[in-house]
Amino acid sequence: MGIFKNNKIRGSIVNNEEFYFMEFDQDSAKPISDGIPLNQFLTEVESDLIPDKIRHKKDNYILIVPDYWLGNYSFQFQTKKRSLVETYIERKLNAEHPGDPEIKYFFDYSNFRTEQGDMGFYVYFLQEPKSIQLYQQCIKYKLAPAFITAPSLIWERKLTQVVSDFAKGGKLFIYLTSRECFLYFFFSGHYLFSRNISFSNSEIESSEKLATLTFEINQSLYSFSQKTKSGMDQIYLLSTVPGQGYAQNLAEMLDRKVLELDNQEQDREMEALEYLGPAGYFTARDLAPSRKLLNVVNKQAKTELEWRPIQIQGIAIGICLLLLLIGQWIFVWKWFPYRHTYNIKSGTMSKNEIVQIYHRYNDSLELLLQEGARISPQNTLIKVAQSTPKNIRLKKMLVEIEPNPSVSMEGISKSQGPDQFKDSLSSLLTNLKSRFQGIKTLNIKDIDFEIDKESKDLSVNTYRFKFKFNLP
Amino acid sequence: MKNKIIKRWIIVGIMWIGALFLAYWNGEITKQTKRIIEQEEIYKLENRSFKSQSENISKIIKKAENLYQTVDAPNIGILILEKKLHFLASNYRLTQINIKIDQTKKSESSALLSIAFNGSLKNTIQWLTALQRDFPYIIVRGLEIIQEPSKKQAKFKVSLNYRYRIVSSGKVI
């Protein structure tokens, strides 16, 4: 992930009513331009003031304002739910600063547990009216800062990393330069207030400096005790002035232990950057990742900041997905026409022709089966002829093949008496039944018969009969 | 600031809608291609099976085609048929041949006709067998036999159905 890490952070510092464009790299803070009087920056309408380096690279732009621009207070609240806490803070800021309705949008907070275990919050907000004006001016210059913070809040994070028990009790951090001294008071790891002591003459004797410092520290410690109802546990000193032994001398004068922090930036020429105030000490290492800093920028910018990585990831994944799918589409699309022209290439009979032939084949087969099932008239005649006994003569016969296959017969039988006639009929029926399947139910009772009284032959009886049966 | 968030969401939305659309589109094309491949496989099988059975299929189709006579006009077909039937009946020593066409029952593909004659049962059966063999487009619908006591020969009346297909430039067989 190292390659995605931005090694340089661009931003601005406001110090002593001057506005500086800065570039923070891994080792130092570098001013890009000379300081612009803050009032000029706030009133200027031309955007020529913005250096090209900033104009073209203004992502994650950070604005470091003086500590005194920052107000803070703490309160206890029953819930940790973000929406409720933020609504409460907004309402409170609005009530306390009715003249500046914008203030309620520029805050950040951190939570803590009281000794009783209740939930508490430290709220930091931009109390300086100029700060809102500055923010709006930045937007006008299309330089909307993603982060607004102050040295005190940056120190808070830096000390949390450096001092192991920073989150316990009261802590005083002294940042000493040749021109100024900054006192930062923390309680339970949270910034409370700060003091700025300027030395009128940088060449002032160190003993006089120490006396001034001791006096200010004692005053502030009293104020700290009143605010926190607690004593100061530890004092830390970070001096950019080399080899003066301030920590030891200060400890003697305060009659307290003063721990001198290791100045990691001692190789740098800090004196040249002292005009930037404590913010000049910071490097990109102190500011990154900026998300972890307390950020008093307005709510919308924060929302944008929160959503930005998700949106960028969404866009990046979307692009990858689109590229993959476009690739797939090209592959499939190129493949598709080949399949489509298969018939032409193969030079065989087309699918439609085969289907048509199969249809014709099926129709033909059906027709032939129907023909095969048709009753043969000559076979019917042969079967009837073979079934007829010698003493029976057919006079009329009707063979119907369509639509209802059937045979109607009319004939005469010359018999000695009814018994012989009955035998003849039985013989006829038995023969017919054996030759025509499906006429098993045909019986003598289905046959109409009568004696032919007009017959001239008196030696035998002539019987007329007729019947009909269906062909299967 | 708010616009920037909205713009980014719009870009994200367009990207993902585009991706979804493409995924759907590709899915459809893939499905279609798959279907075509399957059809091609079926077609290949059908083609192979068709090639192996084509002789049999042709025979069946030809045989079924013979069940209808192709004619330019039904009346011409009937006229020729009448002559042929008369000739066939004479060949089997059937006498007093009388052929009648039922003009009321004529349709686009069939006509009803009847043939009456005198003859023996044996000759009539032989004639019926020849009729079925040589005239597959003629169906016997029914027949009536009347045997008069004094006469040796019986009277026959056979109802026939003549099937045909009209073709614009067909040759009457």
Descriptive overview:
The complex is a heterodimer of chains A (472) and B (173). Chain A is rod-shaped and about 180 Å long. In chain A, helix 6 (206-228) crosses helix 7 and helix 12 runs antiparallel to helix 13. With 472 residues, chain A is α+β, with helices and mostly antiparallel strands. Chain A has helices spanning 38-43, 52-55, 82-96, 129-140, 151-162, 206-228, 246-254, 284-287, 299-340, 342-346, 351-373, 377-387, 418-435, and strands at residues 9-15, 18-24, 29-31, 36-37, 62-64, 70-76, 107-113, 119-126, 147-149, 170-176, 180-187, 190-198, 232-239, 258-260, 392-400, 406-415, 448-451, 461-470. Chain A has 13 helices and 18 strands. Among the domains of chain A are: 162-263, ATPase, nucleotide binding domain (Nucleotidyltransferase, domain 5); 345-373; 377-470, Gyrase A, domain 2, CATH 3.30.1360. Helices cover 39% and strands 24% of the residues of chain A. The two termini of chain A are 91 Å apart. In chain B, 55% of the residues lie in helices and 25% in strands. Chain B contains 3 helices and 5 strands. In chain B, strand 2 (95-102) and strand 3 form a beta hairpin. Chain B has 173 residues and is of the alpha+beta class. In chain B, strands 1, 2, 3, 4 and 5 form a 5-stranded mixed β-sheet that branches. Classes of the chains: A alpha+beta (472), B alpha+beta (173). Strand 15 (392-400) of chain A pairs antiparallel with strand 4 of chain B.
Helix content of chain B: 55-70%
Main sheet: strands, sense, barrel of chain B: 5 strands, mixed
Order of helices and strands of chain B: HEHEEHEE
Distance between the termini of chain A: 91 Å
Helical run tally of chain A: 13
CATH class of the domain at 162-263 in chain A: Alpha Beta
Would you tell me the overall average pLDDT of chain A? 85
Main pleated sheet of chain A: 6 strands, mixed
Second CATH tier, the architecture of the domain at 162-263 in chain A: 2-Layer Sandwich
Shape of chain A: rod-shaped
